[in-house]
Structure formats: C-alpha cells, structure tokens
Specification:
16% of the residues lie in helices and 50% in strands. It contains three helices and 13 strands. Strands 1-2-3-4-5-6-7-8-9-10-11-12-13 form a 13-stranded antiparallel beta sheet.
Length: 264
C-alpha cells in the first residue's frame, strides 16, 4: 500500500485508534495499515496509564506497593501482581486484559522497577516478556519520570515509551513516543501532549497530540477530547475530538464528520 493512498485514507482511519474499521466507515480487512499505525498511540498509552495511574508517592517502595495493590485492570481478575520482597519491583501477569475501547486483548508479563531520581521525582521503568496482543507477539518498554503534586490526585508523567506488535495480517508495527501526560487518579483521566512516530510496514506516520484526553471510569475508555495531528508523505490531517462519539477531520480532502466507537 502506498503512502499516497495512506494519506488520502487517513482522514477516516486516523480516528480508529483502537476502534473498529467498520465503525469508521471502512470495510473490514481494508486499509489495515492505517488502523495499525493509529491504534498504536491508544494501545501504548493505555498500558502506560495502567502502570502510572495508581502511583501516589515518589518513594520507590511505596510506589511499588501502590502498583501491587491496584485493581484497575479490566476485566476484574485478569492480572496478578507480585512484588519483590526486598526491592521496589513489581511483576504484572496479564491474562486477556482489555485494551482501548474493549477491542484489544493483552496477555504476558510486564516488570516495573521504581527508583528515585536526583531531583526527587520517581522513575518507573517497565519491560514486557512473552506479551501478546490479540494473540500476536508484542513488546512494551517504558522509561517515565513521575512528579507527584502534594495534596492532589494528579501526577505529571514524562519520558519515552516503545510499543511493537505483529498485526493480524502479520505486519510489524513499531511505535515510539515522547508524551508528557497529566494523570488524575480520582477521575481516571489522562491528558497527553507531545509527539510520536509509528511505522506499519512501509508506512510512517508522525503524530502530534494536543490536550488529547481520555477518561476511563469503570475500566472503559470514554470518548476523547483534544486534537491529534498526523503527517505522512508531506500531507497533514487534523482530528478534533469534543467528547462525543463524533470527530471532525480536516485534511487534504476537506473537512468531514466521522463516527467513533467509544464510551460503551
């Protein structure tokens, strides 16, 4: 599939970050590269959120205890948490946990190590082992610095994340990001600003997020707000979200409204 065709179709499929193709106006099995590329942001940020949201202390030992006690993975009982008895290390074992918008199933282990940075912030490092996404091989790594705001339920998370997987069609998808995220543990919302790059086969997409916010009450991602801007082959498409199940897409072919599957 050429990059030219990718960009022309991006106005629809950039919205499918974890959503179904048919819901976004495409036929099943068509334009899978687009869905692979754009779903990566939602998938990697969802794993990151599950790790960083429970943390309420910059102390590594306390942070490890926070993560060990967390029960936010969905459905209930899909993950077990084992804390190292002497080190601030927690191993998460996932068994068919639900990903963004309920359309991704994760299994495997993620080991998270906490340490104190020189500036007093908390560093969380994560690496996966034997992970699968919808039954296909996947890997996840994360290096994040977490700043806890005293007296509040918010924390600022900065650093890098990598997410790789094999799609259902056997295409290798690689995603790297340098997001700055604000996470509110009381509302279970994450707000992302920053940039990322995704490759799906021969397709490369540069993505910029501005105030892209997703809330996850009861383990289900709600419809987002904010904007995503995707650039490929010199063409740019901007998607604006307003919290409803409709998004506004502006690109080389004009502006249109596209329906989303979210908040269900």
């Amino acid at each position: 599939m050429t990059q030219k065709f990718f960009v022309r179709s991006l106005s629809v499929f950039a919205l499918c970050a974890g959503l179904s193709l048919t819901a976004c106006g495409g036929a099943a099995g068509q334009d899978d590269d687009q869905e692979d590329a754009n779903a990566s942001m939602a998938q990697s940020s969802a794993v990151e959120y599950m790790i960083t949201n429970p943390i309420n202390s910059a102390d590594p030992a306390t942070a490890a205890t926070n993560l060990q006690a967390a029960t936010q993975w969905w459905p209930a009982g899909c993950v077990t948490r084992q804390k190292d008895p002497t080190n601030p290390i927690v191993t998460l074992t996932l068994n068919n946990c639900t990903g963004p918008f309920g359309l991704m199933k994760w299994s495997g282990t993620v080991t998270v190590t906490f340490q104190k940075n020189a500036d007093g912030t908390l560093k969380a490092s994560a690496v996966s082992k034997d992970m699968t996404a919808n039954g296909n091989p996947a890997t996840f790594t994360m290096e994040r610095n977490i700043t806890i705001t005293p007296g509040t339920t918010t924390r600022d998370v900065k650093g890098t994340t990598t997410w790789s997987r094999v799609s259902a069609r056997g295409v290798q998808v690689n995603h790297t990001s340098a997001w700055a995220a604000t996470i509110d543990s009381s509302t279970r919302c994450r707000t992302v600003n920053g940039a990322g790059t995704t490759t799906a086969g021969a397709v490369t997409v540069a993505t910029t997020a501005k105030d892209y916010k997703v809330c996850r009450p009861a383990g289900i991602d709600q419809c987002p707000t904010g904007t995503l801007t995707h650039t490929a082959a010199g063409n740019t498409v901007t998607i604006s979200f307003d919290g409803s199940n409709m998004a506004t897409v502006t690109g080389p072919r004009g502006t249109r409204q596209v329906g989303l599957v979210c908040g269900q």
